[in-house]
TrEMBL record:
Catalytic activity: alpha-D-glucose 1-phosphate + ATP + H(+) = ADP-alpha-D-glucose + diphosphate
Binding-site residues, alpha-D-glucose 1-phosphate: Y107, G172, E187, K188, S205
UniProt entry keywords in alphabetical sequence: ATP-binding, Carbohydrate metabolism, Glycogen biosynthesis, Glycogen metabolism, Nucleotide-binding, Nucleotidyltransferase, Transferase
A Gene Ontology molecular function term of the record: glucose-1-phosphate adenylyltransferase activity
Source species of the chain: Thioclava dalianensis
E.C. numbers: 2.7.7.27
Residue ranges constituting the Nucleotidyl transferase domain according to the UniProt record: 15-284
SUPFAM superfamilies xrefs: Nucleotide-diphospho-sugar transferases, Trimeric LpxA-like enzymes
The protein, known as: Glucose-1-phosphate adenylyltransferase
Domain Glucose-1-phosphate adenylyltransferase/Bifunctional protein GlmU-like C-terminal hexapeptide: 307-410
Gene Ontology BP term (one): glycogen biosynthetic process
Pathway noted in the entry: Glycan biosynthesis; glycogen biosynthesis
Pfam family, one: Hexapep_GlmU
Amino acid sequence: MKPQPNTRLSAQAMAFVLAGGRGSRLMELTDRRAKPAVYFGGKTRIIDFALSNALNSGIRKMAIATQYKAHSLIRHVQRGWNFFRAERNEYLDILPASQRVADSRWYLGTADAVAQNIDIIDDYGVKFVIILAGDHIYKMDYEVMLQEHVTTGADVTIGCLTVPRTEAKAFGVMAVDAKGQVTEFLEKPKNPPGMPDDPENSLASMGIYVFDWAFLRDLLRRDMEDSNSSHDFGHDLIPDIVKNGRAMAHKFSDSCVTSGLETEPYWRDVGTVDAFWQANIDLTDFTPKLDLYDNAWPIWTYAEIVPPAKFIHDEDDRRGSAVSSLVSGDCIVSGSEVRHSLLFTGVRAHSFSALDQAVVLPYVDIGRHAKLSQCVIDRGVQIPAGLVVGEDPEEDEKWFRRSEGGVVLITQPMLDRRAAALD
């Protein structure tokens, strides 16, 4: 079956977003929220990228499976993604793990999260289902992948990154033939296979899968009855299709969305404190690797109604300024110096304070004379006057979380413990 000219397959597809994971490598940033609900880029959340890709691709039917500490995520989706209208055949359902199959059974794995909602997906009346991870940063046109899926007659089409073989050990890696059919799926192999036309690089799974719904439905039914299965796409379903069916690899470079400023396909797993900090700080570059200013492919989110950012005081040692930084609405930089930093909504930086390479989440208050560098500050934190972070590693580790890369994570409980110890 070949796609018909001028027919958008996205109109016949739904996006099923897996957003139930904690993301424990982000440490205390996920103490109160799931990884997909973590803030990113000044005003968005991580999940906004997968949802925006689907919306911009023409998909108007979506479902989000949640499990771990989902309140923040659910509230964000309800506030920022409430413009779908059923009378236009548009839907966005939030599907918390709710013991729908058995009283004691939550989502056991990624495939089980879909399987437990088969009846809901049936009601959508779709032909294709795109399985998405809700915790990666990238811009991608899923319509291109859908077209390739139909053209190749695949049972599953797997979104793949091109990565150097030396880095592929950390991924699920595809061995493919000259036509792009997956011949072997290897989970974090010691010796990753190269690509037929590019032996120095490997194809790594992005956790994005396109299925015909009828095929996936039958596969999920069989998997639910298999007591030996871990009910996971990457561990169970995909290897089975590779062995017994037709799995095709889709290169991300063929469907990534660029504005002309990006020099290479951009995809990031911001699953560690170091990666999260770096990806945010990268946005302050003169020409960032990810263009958030591309109006042709907007990243939709909950847009709070807030006043503009404000910069006050203009004295030699007390000047409100920001250089090579992103400053969101409702921020007041009051006699503070901000460099190479990213300030989310509602931050207050008081006089004589200084920020350098700081990622400051919403509604943080930074006291006078505080000096903060190479750090991530969680939402709502009250930074005491005179606090210095980023200059003395031993002192930082005494009170805060310091990553392998030297990034300091600051949360309110950490500051409370410090205050109690110094009192």
